Amino acid sequence: MFVVTVNADLCDGCGECTESCPAETLKLVDGKCQVVNDECMGCETCVTICPTGAVTLEER
What we know:
Elements lengths: L1 E5 L9 H5 L5 E4 L2 E4 L9 H5 L5 E5 L1
Antiparallel strand pairs: 1-4, 2-3
């Protein structure tokens, strides 16, 4: 199981991670990226593409 975390203090709301997530795990809500489901596939695209380093991924 993969768990995505978003640091809201670092997120600038660019939407890069939400657009790149094939599982639609991330969405922009009120101008910030938020995790909206637990369907993460562990591809790490969101982590790689986030320009501010706000998104992290952990395998549990």
